[in-house]
Write a structure and sequence with these properties.
heterodimer; A: mainly alpha; MetI-like fold; B: about 260 residues; 6-stranded mixed β-sheet; 4-stranded antiparallel β-sheet
Chain lengths: ~240, ~260
């Protein structure tokens, strides 16, 4: 409301900051193509997010298995994080071709690092008594991992997943900026190029909404499947 | 039952330094005997417990149970830790069953035994609850059930009541004596509390630190069943005074 009022009272030009009503009208006008773009971005985000989870879990298990492995893997992890993803994206397009893959890879690269760190932290945060109890029962290392360490890490995994899902949205947009024929990031690039500023703002709003909805989805999954982890989560955060 | 013969344990710290946790400890514990280990921090009482549990190997001497040397954790020992360390994602019943599950021996008889144990410690009706819904004292009761679920001959308790408030502590002390009376076990019980040790034990092993060793073994002549009213009796007073003298005596003498 205040936004709308300020824009109208001070006659802010629409190409600088459009009014909410203008954003709404321009976005609704193109609701068909806009929803296609939204779906495309959602797909990239989810694929990248899923890839982060599938890679981070075994990676974290490896890192925590022995200090030697950790010392081997960590430099590579830090290297992947120090490369600017925006700079890497065009190179990935050359390598993988102009399709969905480089976008998913960029999303993955942006999102997986905090996930690895929090899962590794969770696996090592198990009280030593529980590990001793497992050993006293002569449980194998595999059983110890599955029955004690990984369940114990669930609250940590979820705090990592919450970070990863928001970063996935960032990653997907970076990927779309560089190479895409669809997606909300692509929509922002093209609409600003043609001075359709309200449409670009509409895409921006949709991206924020997408981030919030996906974040809430992770929260709900945690509440439904791991209600016991919520109380512990406070200690993690 | 349990025999420690000139046992020594040296740890190597991360910096490569050697720390002697225990040197030349010899101790025999008879079947169904209740033995308490008392001593200041660093006297190796927790280490002794872990040696008997087979969780750490001795660096000198031998630890044996029923004539067989302990080289790895055995099925006939159960452990209770200072913190209940229940699994937050499992119900109380599943927590109690956890050792059986880890050993791959989960069966109907085990479930039956777990329910019996929960009834024995006054937790009947709490099988489906989760640890966070229970008080600290109730959690530790469940921890004791967990240690007993595979029906071990030996119960190792590492300051099991150390994290509880004083009232709950007294309550569980009496409770433990009742459980021990109903289900006789060989119990090795580590504690910082001298009255607790005297009240519980047939014999109190007083240990001294740096390096950990046995200072003296005190026989407690109190009749059973025991309760906290016995604190006024002369046998109780004599035993606690003697233990205090052993632990603090040195320091007092040096001060003068």
């Amino acid at each position: 409301m205040l936004w709308e009022l300020i824009c109208r009272v001070f006659h802010v030009p629409a190409y600088l900051v459009p009014t909410p009503s203008a954003i709404w009208i321009d976005t609704i006008k193109l609701i068909g193509p806009v929803s296609v773009h939204t779906l495309a971005t959602t797909q990239t985000v989810l694929l990248g997010f899923l890839a982060s989870l599938l890679v981070s879990l075994p990676l974290a298990v490896l890192i925590t298995a022995s200090p030697a492995i950790a010392n081997t893997i960590y430099p590579f992890l830090v290297l992947t994080q120090s490369i600017p993803k925006v700079a890497l994206a065009p190179i990935l397009v050359v390598i993988f071709g102009s399709n969905e893959l480089p976008r998913v890879v960029v999303t993955f690269l942006v999102a997986f690092f905090p996930l690895v760190l929090s899962i590794a932290a969770g696996i090592t945060a198990v009280p030593p008594e529980l590990i001793e109890l497992g050993r006293a029962c002569r449980a194998s290392r595999w059983r110890e991992l599955w029955r004690i360490r990984l369940p114990y890490a669930v609250p940590f995994i979820f705090s990592g997943l919450k970070a990863a899902i928001t970063l996935s949205v960032v990653g997907a947009v970076v990927g779309e900026f560089v190479n895409a024929d669809r997606g909300l990031g692509y929509l922002i690039v093209t609409s600003t190029a043609f001075f359709q500023v309200p449409l670009a703002w509409g895409a921006l709003v949709l991206l924020s909404l997408l981030g919030i909805i996906l974040f809430q989805a992770v929260v709900i999954v945690e509440q439904v499947f791991f209600p016991w982890a919520i109380a512990d989560d406070k200690q993690v955060a | 039952m349990i025999v420690l013969d000139h046992v020594a344990k040296t740890f190597v710290t991360r910096g490569g330094e050697e720390v002697v946790a225990m040197s030349d400890v010899s101790l025999e514990v008879g079947r169904n005997e209740f033995v308490c280990l008392v001593g200041p921090s660093g006297c190796g009482k927790s280490t002794l417990l872990r040696l008997v549990a087979g969780l750490v190997p001795p660096t000198g001497g031998t630890v044996s149970i029923g004539g067989a040397a302990v080289t790895e954790p055995r099925d006939d020992t159960g452990i209770v830790f200072q913190a209940p360390t229940l699994l937050p994602w499992a119900s109380i019943l599943d927590n109690v069953l956890f050792p059986l599950d880890m050993m791959g021996k989960l069966d109907a008889a085990g479930r039956e035994r777990a329910r019996d144990l929960l009834t024995l410690v006054g937790l009947a009706g709490f099988e489906g609850k989760y640890p966070r819904e229970l008080s600290g004292g109730m959690q530790q009761r469940a921890g004791i059930c967990r240690a007993l679920v595979h029906d071990p001959d030996i119960l190792l308790m590492d300051e099991p009541f150390g994290a509880l408030d004083a009232l709950t502590r007294e309550e569980l002390t009496v409770e433990l004596m009742r459980i021990w009376q109903e289900r006789p076990k060989t119990i090795l019980f580590v504690t910082h509390s001298i009255p607790e040790a005297v009240l519980l034990a047939d014999r109190v092993v007083v240990m001294s630190p740096r390096p950990g060793r046995v200072a003296e073994i005190i026989n407690v002549a109190l009749p059973r069943p025991r309760d906290f009213d016995m604190e006024a009796r002369s046998e109780f007073q004599d035993a606690t005074r003697r233990i205090r003298a052993l632990i603090f005596g040195d320091r007092g003498a040096r001060g003068r």
